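Box S1 | Example of a co-folding query
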Amino acid sequence: MKLLGVVLAIQVTLALALVSLVATDSLPFADGEAETPRSPRPTVDRFDGEAAFRLLREQVELGPRPAGSEASRRLAERLRGLLPRGRFQEVPGGLRNVIGTVPGREPGFVVVGAHYDTKDIPGFVGANDGASGTAVVTELARTIRRPRHTIHFILFDGEESPRGTPDADFAEEGLRGSKVAARAFRDARAMVLLDFVGDRRLSIPREAYSRPGLWRRLRAAAKRVGAARVFPPETSAAVLDDHIPFLRRGVPAIDLIDFTFPCFHRPCDDLSAVSERSVDAVGETVYELLRTL
Ligand SMILES: [Zn+2]
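Box S1 (continued) | Returned holo structure for zinc ion
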C-alpha cells in the first residue's frame, strides 16, 4: 500500500524531511480516465515485455502474497532464482528482500527496486500493486549487461504495513524491506523505484518527492524510446513509498507510480487491470535510463 499523502509541510534543507502527512481515501479516480489511450508501442525492442508480463501473471496466480505468507516465501525463492547473483537480505520479522546484481564497468552503483509483497486484504492479488514493478525489475536484471555502474536490483519485502495498521502509522509500520536496504545501499548514486507501472491506462507524472533532475533524465529516456506519452510533464501528490528511506539517506531517488489507478487496494487490481503494453513501455524506458546512469 502507499499512502497518498497531502503534504502539509516540507522542510527542505539538505535532507528530506517528512513533516506530516494526511492519508486520504479519496483518490482521483475516473477523471479523464476514459480519454487516456493505451500505452504507446516503443520504437526500440531491448526489453522483453512478453517475458515480464508472464512473470507478472505468474505472481498473480500465486494468489495473495502478503509479507511472511507461504505464497510470499515461495515467490521469494522463485525470484532469487531468476535474478543474476540472486540472494536474500534479512529483514526483521522473518522477512527477506531479494537482491540481484549486474556488475558495472566503473566504480559506484545504482539501485533499482520494487516491492513483491501484496497488501494483506482477503482476495487481493496485486497485479499492478506489487506484481508489475517486480516483473519489470526482474526482467531488467535479466536483460542488462555490463552497465556503466553496477546495478543492484532489489525486490523489497514488507512494503505494505501489516493488516489492521492505521494509515497514519504507515511510515513506521510499512516500508520494512526498503529501510533495511537503504541502510546497506546508502552510497547509491541513484535509486529508481517501480510501483504501479502496469495499469492499462498508464500515465505517470512526477511523484512530488521524486528528484526533478533524475526525473528529467527519465523523461528524456522515455522520449528516446517513443514512450514520452507515459510520463506527462506534470507533478502529482507525494507518496510514501520505498524510495523514501533512500531519500532520507541522501540518495537521489524517483518513484514511478500511477496513483490515478482506480483499483488501488481493491480486489479489481487483478489481471484485467494491467496490460503487457504498459509493462513494456516502462521496461524500455527504464532500460534506456539505466544506460545513462
Ligand atoms: Zn499497496
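The domain at 3-292 is CATH 3.40.630.10 (Aminopeptidase). Residues 6-34 have pLDDT under 50 and may be disordered.
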